[in-house]
Design a protein that fits this description.
Layout (H helix, E strand, L loop, with lengths): L1 E16 L5 E13 L6 E8 L10 H14 L3 E6 L2 H8 L1 H9 L8 E4 L9 E5 L4 H10 L12 E6 L10 H17 L3 E7 L12 H15 L4 E7 L18 H7 L6 E5 L5 H9 L4 H4 L7 H4 L11 H12 L12 H6 L1 H12 L4 H12 L8 H11 L4 H15 L4
Parallel strand pairs: 1-4, 4-5, 6-7, 6-9, 7-8, 9-10
Antiparallel strand pairs: 1-2, 2-3, 3-8
């Protein structure tokens, strides 16, 4: 059995925030002792915000942090702290049923916790701020005055739960992203919340990879602020027609999983799941703040810090975004964050990059590729022709010649 015991809570006010002229903030820390074979001895969450109520935490953040590590090990889990009865019920039932369908290597386990106190509900509506297309779409959709109060966005978050690299190496990038979210929030009249944790140290092995677990990690971080948040909006990755299609990432089941992670006082929702990649790009294309802040690049942070733009303007994510903005007639408006001159000079190369990715059945790229076909910007290409072109481009080694021969024989069997 895996156990989480000896829960501790500390909170310190009036901490000066580095890099923002000494802006005061509140820092809080939750930690607990963890017992389990091969796991670290302590789970530690440390967060900062402009203001925070001084309340003792429940165990919602811990149970969500340890759920998948326990299921991957096939070990029951006990949390020696109060956990929401609604969340605990769903964790022992539909959440595990869904996760084991998604990943058959996970085992169903029994989760126990101490009786739940009655916490005071929060009022804020928050979302993660990555400055990407999904993130800015959520901002554009949910910050308007026509939103009901339970959905009207007023807070932004940055959580270091593993996407920035190993715990021992992620701090410089995390601090950079903290400065970004604080600066953007202050400029736009929003609140900000940041959190660093060693949660990534509990996730080892292929079944615990970030792409397969990020929903649980980020929701655990949101529950760290569960006494402040009423609603947490998780920017969607796939539109409804593309969910539950066997993708590698856990985002494939996001709109199904997220509502099950709610407690009596905090709901967790998939934001923008009804929109395709091009739908979102059209929204972002007309959203002023994105024109100077959009950040989609997949190139390593160290390289990007030496570049004149926020984005490298040549990786697969930059290529897809620039082509998408071009299709919307809005790329030139984003010249502050992309090398637009390079794009116009090598437009065909960018089209080919998106086409190649689409032919590998990446849903977001297929969405863009189909619009390129509609506009006659690229010629239709079958999967077989795509593979043949790739083999030819990579050279004719003995192995490649075998592949080429097999592809030619396969093509001869195709009608026409």
């Amino acid at each position: 059995m895996i156990t989480a015991t000896q829960f501790e809570f500390n909170q310190i006010g009036d901490q000066e925030i580095e890099g923002l002229g000494g802006i005061p903030a509140v820092r809080r820390e939750f930690r607990c002792t963890v017992t389990g074979k091969g796991l670290p001895d302590e789970l530690i969450f440390t967060g900062e915000a402009r203001t925070l109520p001084e309340r003792h935490p429940n165990g919602n953040w811990a149970v969500l942090s340890l759920l998948i590590p326990a299921m991957a090990m096939g070990e029951d889990l006990h949390i020696d702290a109060p956990v929401s009865p609604l969340l605990l019920y769903n964790l022992n039932n539909d959440i595990q049923h869904l996760l084991t369908v998604y990943n058959a290597n996970l085992s169903q386990i029994r989760i126990t916790a101490t009786p739940q106190d009655t916490p005071t509900p929060g009022t804020r509506v928050a979302t993660g701020f990555s400055a990407g297309v999904d993130s800015f779409t959520t901002l554009a959709m949910f910050e308007g005055a026509d939103m009901p109060p339970a959905l009207r966005l007023d807070s932004l978050t940055t959580f270091d739960v593993g996407a920035m690299g190993d715990t021992s190496e992620s701090e410089p990038l995390y601090r950079e992203y903290c400065t970004r979210v604080r600066t953007y929030a202050i400029e736009n009249g929003l609140e900000w919340f940041t959190l660093a944790t060693n949660i990534a140290d509990f996730y080892s092995g292929p079944d615990c990879a970030f792409e397969k677990t990020h929903i649980l990690r980020n929701t655990a971080a949101a529950y760290f602020f569960g006494d402040v948040f009423q609603t947490y909006l998780y920017s969607s990755a796939f539109p409804f027609p593309q969910i539950n299609k066997g993708h590698y990432a856990i985002a494939d089941i996001e709109p199904i999983l997220l509502p099950l992670l709610a407690s009596e006082n905090m709901r967790v929702l998939s934001a923008g799941a009804g929109l395709t990649r091009m739908d979102k790009t059209r929204i972002v294309a007309g959203y002023g703040p994105a024109m100077s802040h959009l950040d989609v690049c997949a190139t390593g942070a160290r390289i990007r810090m030496t570049l004149p733009y926020k984005n490298c303007s040549k990786c697969w994510k930059c290529s897809r975004t620039m082509v998408s903005l071009d299709l919307c007639g809005a790329l030139d408006a984003f010249s502050a964050v992309f090398d637009v001159d390079r794009y116009h000079r090598d437009r065909t190369i960018y089209f080919n990059t998106v086409r190649d990715s689409a032919m590998n059945n990446k849903p977001a790229d297929l969405d863009v590729y189909n619009l390129m076909l509609e506009k006659g910007l690229v010629a239709p290409e079958t999967w077989l022709k795509q593979r043949l072109r790739r083999v030819w481009r990579n050279g004719l080694s003995p192995t490649t010649r075998q592949k080429l021969g097999a592809l030619r024989r396969k093509m001869r069997r195709q009608p026409g």
